Q: What sequence folds into this?
């Protein structure tokens, strides 16, 4: 497994691999890998001749009061997980390599997709995500790239950006991987104190309660939201940022519950911000 830190080196290796007919599968991450990332790597391993993992904590997607400085990092552990998953190349650039002095070009996905929900709570976040993903695609030159559906809106924004910029990359969304008790895997779970970790289970509780009611025939978004909010309000330290039901492709509010309806939740517990989601009519 090679570790590549230089963008030109990354590009020339990828271009050479493509020229020799190899298919490049790519998993972009910010590191501190968990089982969710491992599931993306396993799928990438199946679907590519060369599997590339990037590890880059992207400063431009963090707001001024967010957790960039304390974002968890453990390269040695990530390297071991990558090696076990059969990664060929880890792309591991520094912030100065990706954004050298004078850097001035950004990718803005405009319109409802990027400005609602996470875009409203975290201004500038998707500009940072779209910019870095475009730069990573140009560096790694993948045929196919894998993203987790936990970051549901991020996946939609990346699909939009890839389509709008005619980037020749197939985007694959992968199912959320959960802990045994239902908490969605996230690098940020490590911030949670034991009692916060327990309270965080209200998120999956709310998604399951609403999903069960929807599958039993409740078709009023308002009633499903009340059920979910009731579940979240039972935990004293949990502050709701949003609980909402949206149409999966547009992320606009939906008046009806159909196969496209997704419930999205963002909460704060102490200093930690968590997001999760579920398709309401999907089998539990
Ligand atoms: O989901 C993530 O880990 C990041 O947002 C991504 C897509 C690697 C861009 O920095």
A:
């Amino acid at each position: 497994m090679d570790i590549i830190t230089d963008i030109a080196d990354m590009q020339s290796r990828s271009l050479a691999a493509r020229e020799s007919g190899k298919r490049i599968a790519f998993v972009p991450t910010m590191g501190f890998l968990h089982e969710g990332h491992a599931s993306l790597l396993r799928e990438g391993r199946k679907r590519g001749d060369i599997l590339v993992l990037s590890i880059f904590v992207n400063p431009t997607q963090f707001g001024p009061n967010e957790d960039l400085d304390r974002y968890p990092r453990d390269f040695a552990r990530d390297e071991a997980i990558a090696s076990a998953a059969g990664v060929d190349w880890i792309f591991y650039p520094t912030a100065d390599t990706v954004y050298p002095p004078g850097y001035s070009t950004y990718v803005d996905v405009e319109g409802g997709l990027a400005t609602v929900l996470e875009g409203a709570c975290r201004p500038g976040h998707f500009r940072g995500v779209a910019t870095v993903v475009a730069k990573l695609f140009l560096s790694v030159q993948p045929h196919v790239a894998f993203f987790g559906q936990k970051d549901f809106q991020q996946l939609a924004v990346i699909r939009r950006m890839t389509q709008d910029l005619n980037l020749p990359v197939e985007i694959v969304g992968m199912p959320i991987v959960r802990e045994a008790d239902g908490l969605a895997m996230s690098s940020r779970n490590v911030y949670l104190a034991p009692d916060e970790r327990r309270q965080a289970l209200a998120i999956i509780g709310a998604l399951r309660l609403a999903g069960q009611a929807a599958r039993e025939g409740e078709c009023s978004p308002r009633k499903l939201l009340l059920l979910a909010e009731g579940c979240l309000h039972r935990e004293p330290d949990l502050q709701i940022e949003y609980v909402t039901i949206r149409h999966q492709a547009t992320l606009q509010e939906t008046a009806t519950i159909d196969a496209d309806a997704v419930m999205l939740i963002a909460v704060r517990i102490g200093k930690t911000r968590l997001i999760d989601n579920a398709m309401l009519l999907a089998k539990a």
